[in-house]
Amino acid sequence: MSGRKSRAAAKEQLSLRVNGEHVCCAAIINKNWAVTVAYCIIKDPFKEITLCSGSSILYKNCTVHHVIKYFIHENYDSIINDYNIAIIQVTPAFSYNNTGAIKLTSNKHVRKNLGITCSWRYYLVI
């Protein structure tokens, strides 16, 4: 995968962690909710899912948010990854001092085959 070096300005970016280890990225959609891919939500009562916000350094200087509840898209198919989306409610709420929400659009303005993805190393405009 090619891309450009990460920019610290990705204030909406979160680290999704299972038992304290980074496994996926997520993004803030408002002060209480985040969005991620469905396959990152691990349904195991012995595993703790948390989100980390406010830092562009993976394991430093972040605020830990605990999952209150989550919803996986009802049509999610783990075999072919259709509808691979989930939303997560957290506590404490996200503080917009060091973070911010992604800008969501309506269905009227959706472009096919266009998207921006963000990770801890690079971001890529497709």
Automatic annotation (TrEMBL):
<protein>
    <submittedName>
        <fullName>Hypodermin-A-like</fullName>
    </submittedName>
</protein>
<feature type="domain" description="Peptidase S1">
    <location>
        <begin position="11"/>
        <end position="107"/>
    </location>
</feature>
<dbReference type="Pfam" id="PF00089">
    <property type="entry name" value="Trypsin"/>
</dbReference>
<dbReference type="InterPro" id="IPR001254">
    <property type="entry name" value="Trypsin_dom"/>
</dbReference>
<dbReference type="InterPro" id="IPR043504">
    <property type="entry name" value="Peptidase_S1_PA_chymotrypsin"/>
</dbReference>
<dbReference type="GO" id="GO:0006508">
    <property type="term" value="P:proteolysis"/>
</dbReference>
<dbReference type="InterPro" id="IPR009003">
    <property type="entry name" value="Peptidase_S1_PA"/>
</dbReference>
<comment type="similarity">
    <text>Belongs to the peptidase S1 family. CLIP subfamily.</text>
</comment>
<dbReference type="InterPro" id="IPR051487">
    <property type="entry name" value="Ser/Thr_Proteases_Immune/Dev"/>
</dbReference>
<dbReference type="GO" id="GO:0004252">
    <property type="term" value="F:serine-type endopeptidase activity"/>
</dbReference>
<keyword id="KW-1015">Disulfide bond</keyword>
